[in-house]
Amino acid sequence: MLAWVTRLDFGAVERTKFVTAASELGRNALVHGRGGTMAIAEVLRDGRAGLQLVFRDQGPGIADIDRAMVDGFSTAKSMGLGLGGARRLVHDFALESLPGQGTTVTVTQWKRR
């Protein structure tokens, strides 16, 4: 992924935020989703380049998404900054989850003009 953000010439701050968010979301998929996949794609919107990551798992899902997005909430006895923290680090964030069916998180970081 670092090669993608470098190739698209993301600034150092954008690069750091995106890689940090990806790390958190990947960890969540492993720990809470019992594994999963990540897809990466270059995207364009209104002539603006960006990178999009889609994390999917087949884990237990998130019963209360609103609560899970609150800083400090954790089911793994961690600091509870993963989902909310990742949301703050990227430009676009979408989360879909159904209990018993898994979770999909899509994040996009847009290159500054």
Describe the overall structure.
This protein is of the alpha+beta class. It is built from 4 helices and 4 strands, in the order H-H-E-E-H-H-E-E. The chain has helices at 2-7, 12-31, 65-68, 82-89; strands at 37-45, 48-57, 92-98, 102-110.
Summarize the helix and strand pattern as letters: HHEEHHEE
Q: Please report the total strand number as a whole number.
A: 4
Classify the fold: give the CATH topology: Heat Shock Protein 90
Beta-strand portion reads: 25-35%
Separation of the first and last Cα atoms: 20 Å
- What is the C-level CATH assignment? Alpha Beta
Biggest sheet strand order reads 1-2-4-3
Low-pLDDT segments: none
Helical residue percent? Answer: 25-40%
From the structure above, extract its key features.
alpha+beta; elongated; 4 strands; 4 helices; 113 residues; Heat Shock Protein 90; single chain
